[in-house]
Amino acid sequence: MNHRRGRRKNFSNHRNHQARLPKVEFKNQIQLSEKEVGITEYLSPLEGFSAVIKARYSDFQVREIQLDGKVAKLTDTSYPKDFCVKTIGIDPKDVDQSPCEHISQEQWVKLKELLDTSEAEPIKINADGITKEARKEIHECMKKYFGKKLVVSTITVEEDGTSKKYIEIKKHRKGDKQDNRQEWPEGIGEYVHFLVYKENVDTLDACFKISEALKMRPSKLTYAGVKDKRAITTQCFCIHKVNPCKILNRTKHIRPIKIGNFSYKSMQLKLGDLQGNNFRIALRNVAASDDVIEEALNLVKNRGFINYYGLQRFGNDKEVPTYEIGIKFLLGQWQAAVELILKPRTSDDPSAFNGDIAKAKKVYAETKDAKKAFNQFSVSKHKCVESKLLQGIMETNENDYVNALEKVPRSMRLFYMHSFQSLIWNKMASKRIQLFGLHPVEGDLVLCGDSKDTCKEADDINLNDGEDEPKKEDSGTENTTKPEIKVLAKEDLENYTVYDIVLPTPGYDVVYPENLKEHYKAVLEEFGLTLEMPKQKVKTYTLSGNYRKILQKPDFTWKIMFYNSPTDNLIRSDFEELRGIPEPKSAENGKYKALLIDVNLPTSSYATMLLREILKTDTASSAHAKLNDYHDNKNEKIAVENGGDGEEPMDESPCFPGSSLLADPEKFKEFQNSIFSVVSGEKRKHKEDSECYKKAKVPHQSTETENT
């Protein structure tokens, strides 16, 4: 126990003590290049300069900008002092008449007699003829007047060959389970909003870890946007009626995640409930003079950048880009889509922590036995697309790939198709700039009316556990309100600039610009599709399309720093600031130059595309891995991660030295406990919760609940 507590104390310092662990280099996947996904043009005529992007995950820090304009910054991880749940008890002996219309006077008298006798028979109230709301009133009445002295449970009894439901009330005895739920405090919202700070953990993984610690389904947690893994990110999560002390207590073991800044609101947090994101970025080993840097940044600040979808939109692996799976969906080639998702990659590593995914794909490719492949899963079971798809294949008829795919969260299936839309948009944005330059021309499209401020793209998808599936009567298609579009005529050109122009992502419900319509048609036909993108029989795989501005011109600030080692911290994280760690300072006579950028971008805009415009370099991590071998002391070298789930740099990743975790059961168990807060036994669970509530000076609330 002491060892584990020590690791938690060093939560932030593990990025600084690289000498304790050996260094490793990454083996990069074969990745897509920018040209292959339509990213070809620049706005600035300058040549750019060399610098390393994301050399460390701490060089890329992202905080959400909430709807009220506030930046999501972790400033408080303490137990909320303003939250207090109380269960008010009233002596039932002082109440002569039954206080609940669903409890008869005779039953009320017997209930009071239960308190004074030890051998009295339980009292049963027929629950077959009353509603759920009525049963809830009975439970609340018992809690209010009898507290923990009586135990209330709903039971089913076989009588005369039929099942009957009763509410059974009996005197509490040692060992009986109790309903310890407490009424939600009056005057505060039912939805608990809180900030989640995480290092090198994506939103989906954080959602799984938090939900597992809380013993709840991942779908109970909601969030406004999806954040990448290789970064330090802070974003808002939301859950309904869960005591914040319980959240803090159950998640305190999860590394590297910190939770805090609780608030209570009447509205649930939904996807898209944010204005954008604040990025703090450090570029390392900058090979340019200060004058060159200033000129490049000022030009980009004045002109902006092309609003391309970044490489992360298309997956980490060139062998199976996400858009290829999306194409198969749109063509109705279900078996081909399944085989692409389950296709083994040369970059798969069966010895990695999540190597069970690679093993499962290999078994399925060799045997086509879904059950045998599914049995390969351990740590990734039910937590990845491959696992869910194999489960779907097992549960459906042979060759029924459409229904097998239903096991994959709908949001993930949409992501594959959105990736294809993004590919087409990138190609058309490049073509638009090549043909017409940076000024409006006849046939261009612009947003008009309220659409200028309210148009949102369906990019930030829900990666929850599939619990958000549409009802059967739903169309299954995108439900995004379409903006009002204006086609520019000659007389309109002087009233608009290139920053107003939008291009559509392909779909059945968009207007294509006449000056690019034939180009859209040609590129879609290359993939066997048409401009109309007709609705499919399987409605989930029908896309309506949307609009996206071709340029972004954000305001941003920057500064130049010097440092001596690739492992030097250049940006102070929120958690480091909270712990009183000072802001990193520029090293006097430092060996290497760094450029720090602070920028706010709207949703769905990629900071890597801003960096591309500044540096004039390919943003693929494989390209930057080649730039990262610059330090004199090669023992301190840290290679750039490929963006996937491969092995992490030891100095910035929570890991254990020595042999593989999977090869050592004791180490693996220890890792499980630290990451997933595995709790063994009810006694330990209640003990930890009790300690939490004592610290917060609020009454204890159990996780044991009963449906009423």
Short recap of the structure:
This protein has 708 residues and is an alpha+beta fold. It has helices at residues 2-9, 105-114, 132-146, 203-214, 244-251, 290-303, 322-331, 334-341, 356-367, 370-374, 385-395, 401-405, 410-436, 451-454, 517-526, 574-578, 607-615, 621-625, 665-676, 682-696; strands at 50-52, 60-66, 123-126, 150-159, 162-171, 191-199, 222-223, 232-240, 257-265, 274-287, 305-306, 445-447, 485-487, 501-505, 546-549, 551-552, 556-563, 592-602. The chain has 20 helices and 18 strands.
What's the average pLDDT?
80
Q: Report the uncertain regions.
A: 1-14, 16-28, 458-479, 637-651, 653-665, 667-708
- Categorize the overall geometry: globular
Number of strands: 18
Report the β-strand fraction as a percent range: 15-25%
Largest sheet: 9 strands, mixed
Cα end-to-end separation: 39 Å
Helix content: 25-40%
What is the CA-based Rg, rounded?
29 Å
Helix-strand makeup class: alpha+beta
Number of helices: 20
Family: Belongs to the pseudouridine synthase TruD family.
Biased composition (Basic and acidic residues): 469-483
Region (Disordered): 1-20, 459-483, 682-708
Keywords: Isomerase, tRNA processing
Topology:
Layout: H1 2-9, E1 50-52, E2 60-66, H2 105-114, E3 123-126, H3 132-146, E4 150-159, E5 162-171, E6 191-199, H4 203-214, E7 222-223, E8 232-240, H5 244-251, E9 257-265, E10 274-287, H6 290-303, E11 305-306, H7 322-331, H8 334-341, H9 356-367, H10 370-374, H11 385-395, H12 401-405, H13 410-436, E12 445-447, H14 451-454, E13 485-487, E14 501-505, H15 517-526, E15 546-549, E16 551-552, E17 556-563, H16 574-578, E18 592-602, H17 607-615, H18 621-625, H19 665-676, H20 682-696
Parallel strand pairs: 2-8
Antiparallel strand pairs: 1-10, 2-10, 3-5, 4-5, 6-8, 6-9, 7-8, 10-18, 11-16, 12-13, 12-14, 14-15, 17-18
Organism: Callosobruchus maculatus
Protein name: TRUD domain-containing protein
InterPro entries: PsdUridine_synth_cat_dom_sf, PsdUridine_synth_TruD, PsdUridine_synth_TruD_CS, PsdUridine_synth_TruD_insert, TruD_catalytic
